[in-house]
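Table 4 source record.
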Amino acid sequence: MEDFKSYAGVKEIGPFHKCFSAVVGPNGSGKSNVIDAMLFVFGKRAKKLRLNKVSELIHKSDGVKDNPPTSARVSVYFQDIVDTGSGDEDYRVLPNTEVVVTRIARKDNSSTYKLNGKNCSFKEIGKYLGSKGIDLDNNRFLILQGEVEMISMMPPKGKTESDEGLLEYLEDIIGSSKFVEATNEAAEKVDSLSEVRQEKLNRVKAVEREKDSLEGAKQEAEALIGKEREIRRKQSILYQINAMLASNETAKYTEQKEELSEKLKGERERVADARKRIKEIEKNLKEQRKDYDNTYNELKRTKDEFQAYERRDIKLRETIKHERANKKKLEAKRKAEEKKEKAAETKKAKAEENIPQLEEEIQNLTETKATEDKKLEVIEEETKVKTQKIRLDLEAKTTELAPVKQERAVLQADLDTAETELKILEDSSTRAKERLSSAEAELKDLDGNQESKRKARKQQEKELATTKKKIGELEREDLELSTKEENLGKQHKELLVRFELKF
Protein backbone atom coordinates (compact mmCIF):
# COMPACT_ATOMS: atom_id res chain seq x y z
CA MET A 1 0.00 0.00 0.00
CA GLU A 2 1.23 3.52 -0.76
CA ASP A 3 -0.39 6.52 1.02
CA PHE A 4 -3.59 4.55 1.52
CA LYS A 5 -5.84 5.75 4.36
CA SER A 6 -3.83 5.51 7.62
CA TYR A 7 -0.72 4.05 5.97
CA ALA A 8 1.79 6.81 5.10
CA GLY A 9 4.37 5.99 2.46
CA VAL A 10 4.84 2.44 1.19
CA LYS A 11 3.69 -0.42 3.41
CA GLU A 12 3.99 -4.11 2.54
CA ILE A 13 1.68 -6.61 4.23
CA GLY A 14 2.19 -10.32 3.80
CA PRO A 15 2.79 -12.69 2.31
CA PHE A 16 -0.54 -14.30 3.25
CA HIS A 17 -0.97 -17.98 4.01
CA LYS A 18 -1.50 -20.32 1.08
CA CYS A 19 -4.88 -21.53 2.46
CA PHE A 20 -6.37 -19.13 5.06
CA SER A 21 -5.38 -15.81 6.66
CA ALA A 22 -7.00 -13.83 9.50
CA VAL A 23 -6.33 -10.18 10.47
CA VAL A 24 -6.80 -9.66 14.21
CA GLY A 25 -5.95 -6.83 16.67
CA PRO A 26 -7.42 -4.21 18.98
CA ASN A 27 -9.70 -1.45 17.81
CA GLY A 28 -7.92 1.22 15.75
CA SER A 29 -4.99 -1.03 14.86
CA GLY A 30 -5.83 -0.94 11.13
CA LYS A 31 -7.60 -4.29 10.59
CA SER A 32 -10.36 -2.76 8.49
CA ASN A 33 -7.88 -0.74 6.40
CA VAL A 34 -6.19 -3.97 5.24
CA ILE A 35 -9.54 -5.38 4.12
CA ASP A 36 -10.53 -2.00 2.62
CA ALA A 37 -7.32 -1.99 0.57
CA MET A 38 -8.24 -5.35 -0.93
CA LEU A 39 -11.82 -4.25 -1.54
CA PHE A 40 -10.46 -1.10 -3.20
CA VAL A 41 -8.26 -3.14 -5.58
CA PHE A 42 -11.16 -5.47 -6.38
CA GLY A 43 -13.42 -2.63 -7.54
CA LYS A 44 -15.63 -1.67 -4.61
CA ARG A 45 -17.09 1.84 -4.61
CA ALA A 46 -16.29 4.47 -1.93
CA LYS A 47 -19.67 3.90 -0.22
CA LYS A 48 -18.72 0.26 0.41
CA LEU A 49 -15.51 1.48 2.02
CA ARG A 50 -17.42 3.75 4.45
CA LEU A 51 -16.40 6.89 2.51
CA ASN A 52 -18.14 9.39 0.25
CA LYS A 53 -15.42 9.93 -2.35
CA VAL A 54 -12.45 7.99 -3.72
CA SER A 55 -10.15 10.96 -2.98
CA GLU A 56 -10.77 10.40 0.79
CA LEU A 57 -8.66 7.21 0.53
CA ILE A 58 -5.48 9.32 0.13
CA HIS A 59 -3.47 9.52 3.36
CA LYS A 60 -3.75 12.75 5.42
CA SER A 61 -1.79 13.38 8.60
CA ASP A 62 0.32 16.04 10.26
CA GLY A 63 3.48 14.27 9.11
CA VAL A 64 2.73 14.91 5.44
CA LYS A 65 1.14 18.35 5.84
CA ASP A 66 4.08 20.09 4.13
CA ASN A 67 4.16 17.68 1.16
CA PRO A 68 0.73 15.99 0.93
CA PRO A 69 0.45 13.00 -1.46
CA THR A 70 -1.70 13.38 -4.63
CA SER A 71 -2.70 9.74 -5.00
CA ALA A 72 -3.12 6.45 -3.18
CA ARG A 73 -1.97 3.10 -4.63
CA VAL A 74 -2.73 -0.48 -3.68
CA SER A 75 -1.16 -3.50 -5.42
CA VAL A 76 -1.96 -7.16 -4.77
CA TYR A 77 0.60 -9.79 -5.83
CA PHE A 78 -0.53 -13.24 -7.00
CA GLN A 79 1.45 -16.36 -7.94
CA ASP A 80 0.56 -19.93 -8.90
CA ILE A 81 1.80 -22.60 -6.48
CA VAL A 82 1.80 -26.39 -6.21
CA ASP A 83 1.25 -27.91 -2.71
CA THR A 84 3.99 -30.29 -1.65
CA GLY A 85 2.78 -30.94 1.90
CA SER A 86 0.53 -29.82 4.77
CA GLY A 87 2.98 -27.35 6.31
CA ASP A 88 2.80 -23.60 5.89
CA GLU A 89 5.89 -23.54 3.70
CA ASP A 90 5.23 -26.81 1.86
CA TYR A 91 4.56 -25.50 -1.66
CA ARG A 92 6.42 -24.77 -4.89
CA VAL A 93 6.01 -21.57 -6.95
CA LEU A 94 5.52 -22.06 -10.66
CA PRO A 95 7.98 -19.93 -12.64
CA ASN A 96 6.77 -16.92 -14.62
CA THR A 97 3.30 -16.92 -12.98
CA GLU A 98 3.53 -13.74 -10.90
CA VAL A 99 0.69 -11.25 -11.54
CA VAL A 100 0.24 -7.76 -10.01
CA VAL A 101 -3.20 -6.10 -9.87
CA THR A 102 -3.05 -2.37 -9.05
CA ARG A 103 -5.60 0.43 -8.49
CA ILE A 104 -4.66 4.10 -8.15
CA ALA A 105 -6.96 6.77 -6.60
CA ARG A 106 -6.38 10.45 -7.40
CA LYS A 107 -7.52 13.75 -5.89
CA ASP A 108 -9.98 14.38 -8.76
CA ASN A 109 -11.93 11.28 -7.59
CA SER A 110 -10.77 9.27 -10.60
CA SER A 111 -9.15 5.85 -10.42
CA THR A 112 -7.04 3.69 -12.75
CA TYR A 113 -6.58 -0.07 -12.92
CA LYS A 114 -3.34 -1.79 -13.98
CA LEU A 115 -2.54 -5.40 -14.74
CA ASN A 116 1.20 -6.14 -14.62
CA GLY A 117 1.88 -2.42 -14.97
CA LYS A 118 -0.38 -1.90 -18.03
CA ASN A 119 -3.56 0.18 -17.93
CA CYS A 120 -6.74 -1.85 -18.40
CA SER A 121 -10.43 -1.79 -17.50
CA PHE A 122 -12.07 -3.32 -14.43
CA LYS A 123 -13.93 -5.72 -16.75
CA GLU A 124 -10.62 -7.15 -17.96
CA ILE A 125 -9.39 -7.45 -14.32
CA GLY A 126 -12.57 -9.34 -13.37
CA LYS A 127 -12.32 -11.62 -16.40
CA TYR A 128 -8.71 -12.54 -15.61
CA LEU A 129 -9.31 -13.16 -11.88
CA GLY A 130 -12.46 -15.11 -12.68
CA SER A 131 -10.37 -17.46 -14.84
CA LYS A 132 -8.24 -18.10 -11.72
CA GLY A 133 -11.28 -18.87 -9.52
CA ILE A 134 -11.62 -15.46 -7.82
CA ASP A 135 -15.30 -14.37 -8.04
CA LEU A 136 -15.46 -10.57 -7.75
CA ASP A 137 -19.26 -10.55 -8.08
CA ASN A 138 -20.09 -12.55 -4.91
CA ASN A 139 -16.82 -11.64 -3.11
CA ARG A 140 -16.78 -14.68 -0.77
CA PHE A 141 -12.99 -14.84 -0.57
CA LEU A 142 -12.98 -11.95 1.98
CA ILE A 143 -14.90 -12.33 5.25
CA LEU A 144 -15.42 -8.83 6.64
CA GLN A 145 -15.73 -7.76 10.24
CA GLY A 146 -19.19 -8.64 11.59
CA GLU A 147 -19.98 -11.14 8.82
CA VAL A 148 -19.20 -14.16 11.07
CA GLU A 149 -21.86 -13.09 13.52
CA MET A 150 -24.27 -12.39 10.65
CA ILE A 151 -23.64 -15.87 9.19
CA SER A 152 -24.21 -17.53 12.56
CA MET A 153 -27.54 -15.70 12.93
CA MET A 154 -28.82 -16.65 9.45
CA PRO A 155 -31.94 -18.85 9.16
CA PRO A 156 -31.45 -22.22 7.41
CA LYS A 157 -33.31 -20.94 4.31
CA GLY A 158 -34.80 -17.64 3.17
CA LYS A 159 -38.59 -17.39 3.60
CA THR A 160 -39.03 -15.50 0.32
CA GLU A 161 -37.05 -15.22 -2.87
CA SER A 162 -35.56 -11.88 -1.76
CA ASP A 163 -34.51 -13.21 1.70
CA GLU A 164 -31.07 -14.78 2.12
CA GLY A 165 -30.54 -17.76 4.44
CA LEU A 166 -27.59 -19.99 5.12
CA LEU A 167 -28.52 -22.19 2.14
CA GLU A 168 -28.53 -19.24 -0.27
CA TYR A 169 -25.29 -17.94 1.25
CA LEU A 170 -23.55 -21.29 0.76
CA GLU A 171 -24.92 -21.60 -2.77
CA ASP A 172 -23.45 -18.18 -3.57
CA ILE A 173 -20.09 -19.30 -2.16
CA ILE A 174 -19.93 -22.57 -4.13
CA GLY A 175 -21.52 -20.95 -7.24
CA SER A 176 -24.58 -23.21 -7.47
CA SER A 177 -27.05 -20.33 -7.14
CA LYS A 178 -26.92 -19.73 -10.87
CA PHE A 179 -28.45 -23.18 -11.38
CA VAL A 180 -31.43 -22.61 -9.04
CA GLU A 181 -33.76 -21.29 -11.74
CA ALA A 182 -32.89 -24.12 -14.13
CA THR A 183 -33.34 -26.63 -11.28
CA ASN A 184 -36.79 -25.29 -10.46
CA GLU A 185 -37.83 -25.43 -14.11
CA ALA A 186 -36.52 -29.00 -14.35
CA ALA A 187 -38.48 -29.94 -11.20
CA GLU A 188 -41.69 -28.47 -12.65
CA LYS A 189 -41.06 -30.36 -15.89
CA VAL A 190 -40.49 -33.60 -13.90
CA ASP A 191 -43.81 -33.08 -12.11
CA SER A 192 -45.71 -32.55 -15.34
CA LEU A 193 -44.03 -35.56 -16.97
CA SER A 194 -44.80 -37.67 -13.93
CA GLU A 195 -48.49 -36.87 -14.35
CA VAL A 196 -48.32 -37.83 -18.03
CA ARG A 197 -46.43 -41.03 -17.12
CA GLN A 198 -49.07 -41.98 -14.54
CA GLU A 199 -51.82 -41.42 -17.10
CA LYS A 200 -50.02 -43.61 -19.66
CA LEU A 201 -49.37 -46.24 -17.00
CA ASN A 202 -53.09 -46.36 -16.10
CA ARG A 203 -53.97 -46.80 -19.76
CA VAL A 204 -51.40 -49.62 -20.12
CA LYS A 205 -52.89 -51.42 -17.12
CA ALA A 206 -56.41 -51.08 -18.56
CA VAL A 207 -55.24 -52.48 -21.90
CA GLU A 208 -53.49 -55.40 -20.14
CA ARG A 209 -56.73 -56.26 -18.31
CA GLU A 210 -58.63 -56.15 -21.63
CA LYS A 211 -55.91 -58.32 -23.25
CA ASP A 212 -56.19 -60.91 -20.47
CA SER A 213 -59.97 -61.09 -20.96
CA LEU A 214 -59.48 -61.85 -24.69
CA GLU A 215 -56.92 -64.64 -24.11
CA GLY A 216 -59.50 -67.46 -24.51
CA ALA A 217 -60.87 -66.07 -27.78
CA LYS A 218 -57.29 -65.70 -29.00
CA GLN A 219 -56.50 -69.39 -28.35
CA GLU A 220 -59.67 -70.47 -30.19
CA ALA A 221 -58.80 -68.24 -33.15
CA GLU A 222 -55.24 -69.63 -33.24
CA ALA A 223 -56.59 -73.21 -33.28
CA LEU A 224 -59.00 -72.35 -36.10
CA ILE A 225 -56.22 -70.68 -38.09
CA GLY A 226 -53.99 -73.76 -37.59
CA LYS A 227 -56.69 -76.06 -39.02
CA GLU A 228 -57.31 -73.73 -41.96
CA ARG A 229 -53.55 -73.65 -42.60
CA GLU A 230 -53.47 -77.49 -42.66
CA ILE A 231 -56.41 -77.56 -45.12
CA ARG A 232 -54.69 -75.04 -47.40
CA ARG A 233 -51.43 -77.07 -47.23
CA LYS A 234 -53.19 -80.26 -48.35
CA GLN A 235 -55.09 -78.34 -51.07
CA SER A 236 -51.79 -76.92 -52.25
CA ILE A 237 -50.31 -80.44 -52.51
CA LEU A 238 -53.36 -81.55 -54.55
CA TYR A 239 -53.08 -78.52 -56.83
CA GLN A 240 -49.38 -79.20 -57.37
CA ILE A 241 -50.11 -82.82 -58.40
CA ASN A 242 -52.84 -81.64 -60.82
CA ALA A 243 -50.52 -78.96 -62.21
CA MET A 244 -47.77 -81.54 -62.82
CA LEU A 245 -50.12 -83.88 -64.70
CA ALA A 246 -51.58 -80.94 -66.66
CA SER A 247 -48.10 -79.69 -67.59
CA ASN A 248 -47.19 -83.17 -68.91
CA GLU A 249 -50.41 -83.24 -70.92
CA THR A 250 -49.90 -79.74 -72.31
CA ALA A 251 -46.29 -80.42 -73.43
CA LYS A 252 -47.59 -82.07 -76.63
CA TYR A 253 -49.91 -79.16 -77.35
CA THR A 254 -47.09 -76.74 -76.64
CA GLU A 255 -44.92 -78.41 -79.30
CA GLN A 256 -47.78 -78.25 -81.80
CA LYS A 257 -48.36 -74.62 -80.89
CA GLU A 258 -44.66 -73.81 -81.39
CA GLU A 259 -44.70 -75.43 -84.85
CA LEU A 260 -47.82 -73.50 -85.79
CA SER A 261 -46.29 -70.32 -84.34
CA GLU A 262 -43.16 -70.75 -86.47
CA LYS A 263 -45.29 -71.26 -89.55
CA LEU A 264 -47.48 -68.29 -88.62
CA LYS A 265 -44.36 -66.19 -88.03
CA GLY A 266 -43.05 -67.05 -91.52
CA GLU A 267 -46.40 -66.19 -93.11
CA ARG A 268 -46.53 -62.94 -91.20
CA GLU A 269 -43.05 -62.06 -92.41
CA ARG A 270 -44.20 -62.72 -95.98
CA VAL A 271 -47.24 -60.53 -95.40
CA ALA A 272 -45.04 -57.79 -93.87
CA ASP A 273 -42.67 -57.94 -96.89
CA ALA A 274 -45.63 -57.76 -99.25
CA ARG A 275 -47.10 -54.79 -97.35
CA LYS A 276 -43.72 -53.09 -97.37
CA ARG A 277 -43.51 -53.59 -101.16
CA ILE A 278 -47.04 -52.19 -101.51
CA LYS A 279 -46.08 -49.13 -99.47
CA GLU A 280 -43.05 -48.57 -101.71
CA ILE A 281 -45.18 -48.93 -104.85
CA GLU A 282 -47.82 -46.59 -103.43
CA LYS A 283 -45.09 -44.13 -102.47
CA ASN A 284 -43.60 -44.20 -106.01
CA LEU A 285 -47.07 -43.91 -107.49
CA LYS A 286 -47.78 -40.95 -105.22
CA GLU A 287 -44.54 -39.23 -106.28
CA GLN A 288 -45.26 -39.88 -109.98
CA ARG A 289 -48.79 -38.61 -109.54
CA LYS A 290 -47.39 -35.51 -107.84
CA ASP A 291 -44.94 -35.00 -110.76
CA TYR A 292 -47.80 -35.47 -113.21
CA ASP A 293 -49.97 -32.93 -111.36
CA ASN A 294 -47.09 -30.44 -111.27
CA THR A 295 -46.44 -30.95 -114.99
CA TYR A 296 -50.13 -30.59 -115.82
CA ASN A 297 -50.42 -27.42 -113.72
CA GLU A 298 -47.28 -25.99 -115.36
CA LEU A 299 -48.70 -26.80 -118.82
CA LYS A 300 -52.00 -25.17 -117.93
CA ARG A 301 -50.24 -22.10 -116.57
CA THR A 302 -48.07 -21.86 -119.68
CA LYS A 303 -51.12 -22.06 -121.98
CA ASP A 304 -52.86 -19.35 -119.98
CA GLU A 305 -49.77 -17.14 -120.20
CA PHE A 306 -49.50 -17.82 -123.95
CA GLN A 307 -53.15 -16.83 -124.48
CA ALA A 308 -52.59 -13.69 -122.41
CA TYR A 309 -49.49 -12.86 -124.52
CA GLU A 310 -51.52 -13.40 -127.73
CA ARG A 311 -54.24 -11.05 -126.53
CA ARG A 312 -51.65 -8.50 -125.49
CA ASP A 313 -49.81 -8.86 -128.81
CA ILE A 314 -53.02 -8.17 -130.76
CA LYS A 315 -53.73 -5.19 -128.56
CA LEU A 316 -50.20 -3.85 -129.00
CA ARG A 317 -50.34 -4.26 -132.77
CA GLU A 318 -53.60 -2.28 -132.90
CA THR A 319 -52.07 0.35 -130.63
CA ILE A 320 -48.96 0.60 -132.85
CA LYS A 321 -51.13 0.94 -135.95
CA HIS A 322 -53.19 3.67 -134.30
CA GLU A 323 -50.11 5.52 -133.04
CA ARG A 324 -48.49 5.43 -136.46
CA ALA A 325 -51.60 7.05 -137.97
CA ASN A 326 -51.53 9.69 -135.24
CA LYS A 327 -47.83 10.22 -135.92
CA LYS A 328 -48.49 10.97 -139.60
CA LYS A 329 -51.21 13.46 -138.70
CA LEU A 330 -48.97 15.15 -136.16
CA GLU A 331 -46.11 15.34 -138.68
CA ALA A 332 -48.38 17.10 -141.22
CA LYS A 333 -49.68 19.47 -138.57
CA ARG A 334 -46.14 20.16 -137.35
CA LYS A 335 -44.97 21.08 -140.89
CA ALA A 336 -47.91 23.46 -141.36
CA GLU A 337 -47.20 25.13 -138.04
CA GLU A 338 -43.51 25.47 -138.92
CA LYS A 339 -44.49 27.34 -142.10
CA LYS A 340 -46.70 29.70 -140.07
CA GLU A 341 -43.88 30.21 -137.59
CA LYS A 342 -41.42 31.14 -140.36
CA ALA A 343 -43.87 33.71 -141.84
CA ALA A 344 -44.46 35.24 -138.39
CA GLU A 345 -40.73 35.45 -137.75
CA THR A 346 -40.23 37.25 -141.12
CA LYS A 347 -42.86 39.83 -140.19
CA LYS A 348 -41.25 40.23 -136.76
CA ALA A 349 -37.83 40.84 -138.31
CA LYS A 350 -39.20 43.56 -140.61
CA ALA A 351 -40.92 45.24 -137.66
CA GLU A 352 -37.72 45.12 -135.59
CA GLU A 353 -35.76 46.76 -138.49
CA ASN A 354 -38.15 49.76 -138.48
CA ILE A 355 -37.93 50.29 -134.68
CA PRO A 356 -34.34 51.80 -134.60
CA GLN A 357 -35.18 54.28 -137.37
CA LEU A 358 -38.24 55.48 -135.50
CA GLU A 359 -36.34 55.79 -132.23
CA GLU A 360 -33.68 57.89 -133.96
CA GLU A 361 -36.32 60.26 -135.32
CA ILE A 362 -37.74 60.58 -131.78
CA GLN A 363 -34.30 61.49 -130.42
CA ASN A 364 -33.85 64.23 -133.05
CA LEU A 365 -37.23 65.71 -132.35
CA THR A 366 -36.49 65.68 -128.58
CA GLU A 367 -33.29 67.74 -129.08
CA THR A 368 -35.18 70.49 -130.92
CA LYS A 369 -38.05 70.51 -128.44
CA ALA A 370 -36.99 73.68 -126.58
CA THR A 371 -37.14 75.89 -129.65
CA GLU A 372 -40.11 74.38 -131.44
CA ASP A 373 -42.56 73.26 -128.81
CA LYS A 374 -45.66 74.04 -130.76
CA LYS A 375 -44.30 72.45 -133.91
CA LEU A 376 -42.99 69.56 -131.92
CA GLU A 377 -46.38 68.86 -130.39
CA VAL A 378 -47.92 68.57 -133.86
CA ILE A 379 -45.06 66.39 -135.12
CA GLU A 380 -45.11 64.32 -131.92
CA GLU A 381 -48.82 63.68 -132.34
CA GLU A 382 -48.27 62.48 -135.88
CA THR A 383 -45.26 60.35 -134.87
CA LYS A 384 -47.12 58.99 -131.89
CA VAL A 385 -49.98 57.76 -134.06
CA LYS A 386 -47.55 55.99 -136.45
CA THR A 387 -45.48 54.46 -133.63
CA GLN A 388 -48.59 53.30 -131.80
CA LYS A 389 -49.84 51.54 -134.87
CA ILE A 390 -46.50 49.75 -135.43
CA ARG A 391 -46.33 48.67 -131.81
CA LEU A 392 -49.86 47.38 -131.91
CA ASP A 393 -49.01 45.36 -135.02
CA LEU A 394 -45.91 43.97 -133.32
CA GLU A 395 -47.86 42.95 -130.18
CA ALA A 396 -50.58 41.38 -132.32
CA LYS A 397 -48.00 39.29 -134.23
CA THR A 398 -46.29 38.25 -130.99
CA THR A 399 -49.64 37.30 -129.43
CA GLU A 400 -50.54 35.35 -132.56
CA LEU A 401 -47.18 33.50 -132.51
CA ALA A 402 -47.38 32.45 -128.77
CA PRO A 403 -50.10 29.77 -129.13
CA VAL A 404 -48.31 28.37 -132.15
CA LYS A 405 -45.10 27.89 -130.11
CA GLN A 406 -47.04 26.37 -127.25
CA GLU A 407 -48.90 24.01 -129.57
CA ARG A 408 -45.62 23.04 -131.21
CA ALA A 409 -44.10 22.15 -127.79
CA VAL A 410 -47.16 20.04 -126.93
CA LEU A 411 -47.02 18.22 -130.26
CA GLN A 412 -43.28 17.55 -129.86
CA ALA A 413 -43.85 16.06 -126.39
CA ASP A 414 -46.67 13.85 -127.71
CA LEU A 415 -44.43 12.71 -130.55
CA ASP A 416 -41.62 11.76 -128.15
CA THR A 417 -44.04 9.86 -125.92
CA ALA A 418 -45.50 7.96 -128.87
CA GLU A 419 -42.03 6.96 -130.10
CA THR A 420 -41.08 5.71 -126.61
CA GLU A 421 -44.29 3.68 -126.27
CA LEU A 422 -43.77 2.26 -129.73
CA LYS A 423 -40.29 1.09 -128.80
CA ILE A 424 -41.54 -0.48 -125.55
CA LEU A 425 -44.32 -2.27 -127.36
CA GLU A 426 -41.93 -3.65 -129.96
CA ASP A 427 -39.60 -4.95 -127.20
CA SER A 428 -42.50 -6.53 -125.31
CA SER A 429 -43.73 -8.21 -128.48
CA THR A 430 -40.26 -9.62 -129.15
CA ARG A 431 -39.97 -11.03 -125.61
CA ALA A 432 -43.47 -12.49 -125.79
CA LYS A 433 -42.61 -14.29 -129.04
CA GLU A 434 -39.42 -15.68 -127.50
CA ARG A 435 -41.27 -16.95 -124.39
CA LEU A 436 -44.00 -18.40 -126.61
CA SER A 437 -41.48 -20.41 -128.63
CA SER A 438 -39.78 -21.58 -125.39
CA ALA A 439 -43.13 -22.58 -123.87
CA GLU A 440 -44.05 -24.53 -127.02
CA ALA A 441 -40.74 -26.45 -126.88
CA GLU A 442 -41.22 -27.17 -123.15
CA LEU A 443 -44.80 -28.25 -123.84
CA LYS A 444 -43.56 -30.82 -126.37
CA ASP A 445 -41.07 -32.18 -123.82
CA LEU A 446 -43.78 -32.36 -121.15
CA ASP A 447 -46.08 -34.23 -123.53
CA GLY A 448 -43.32 -36.80 -124.12
CA ASN A 449 -42.63 -37.22 -120.38
CA GLN A 450 -46.32 -37.44 -119.63
CA GLU A 451 -46.76 -40.31 -122.09
CA SER A 452 -43.84 -42.29 -120.58
CA LYS A 453 -45.16 -41.67 -117.05
CA ARG A 454 -48.61 -42.84 -118.06
CA LYS A 455 -47.12 -46.12 -119.29
CA ALA A 456 -45.10 -46.56 -116.05
CA ARG A 457 -48.19 -45.77 -114.03
CA LYS A 458 -50.22 -48.45 -115.83
CA GLN A 459 -47.43 -50.97 -115.15
CA GLN A 460 -47.35 -50.05 -111.46
CA GLU A 461 -51.13 -50.30 -111.23
CA LYS A 462 -50.91 -53.84 -112.58
CA GLU A 463 -48.21 -54.70 -110.01
CA LEU A 464 -50.34 -53.13 -107.27
CA ALA A 465 -53.35 -55.21 -108.23
CA THR A 466 -51.23 -58.40 -108.19
CA THR A 467 -49.73 -57.51 -104.77
CA LYS A 468 -53.15 -56.71 -103.29
CA LYS A 469 -54.42 -60.05 -104.50
CA LYS A 470 -51.46 -61.81 -102.87
CA ILE A 471 -52.03 -59.87 -99.64
CA GLY A 472 -55.65 -61.01 -99.60
CA GLU A 473 -54.55 -64.62 -99.92
CA LEU A 474 -52.00 -64.20 -97.09
CA GLU A 475 -54.61 -62.52 -94.86
CA ARG A 476 -57.03 -65.38 -95.44
CA GLU A 477 -54.28 -67.86 -94.59
CA ASP A 478 -53.42 -65.84 -91.47
CA LEU A 479 -57.09 -65.90 -90.43
CA GLU A 480 -57.18 -69.69 -90.85
CA LEU A 481 -54.04 -70.10 -88.72
CA SER A 482 -55.50 -67.82 -86.02
CA THR A 483 -58.69 -69.91 -86.02
CA LYS A 484 -56.63 -73.09 -85.63
CA GLU A 485 -54.65 -71.54 -82.79
CA GLU A 486 -57.85 -70.50 -81.02
CA ASN A 487 -59.33 -74.01 -81.41
CA LEU A 488 -56.14 -75.57 -79.99
CA GLY A 489 -56.33 -73.20 -77.00
CA LYS A 490 -59.93 -74.22 -76.36
CA GLN A 491 -58.96 -77.94 -76.56
CA HIS A 492 -56.11 -77.29 -74.09
CA LYS A 493 -58.47 -75.66 -71.61
CA GLU A 494 -61.01 -78.50 -72.00
CA LEU A 495 -58.28 -81.09 -71.31
CA LEU A 496 -57.20 -79.19 -68.17
CA VAL A 497 -60.81 -79.08 -66.89
CA ARG A 498 -61.30 -82.80 -67.61
CA PHE A 499 -58.01 -83.57 -65.87
CA GLU A 500 -58.98 -81.61 -62.77
CA LEU A 501 -62.44 -83.30 -62.67
CA LYS A 502 -60.83 -86.69 -63.06
CA PHE A 503 -58.39 -86.26 -60.16
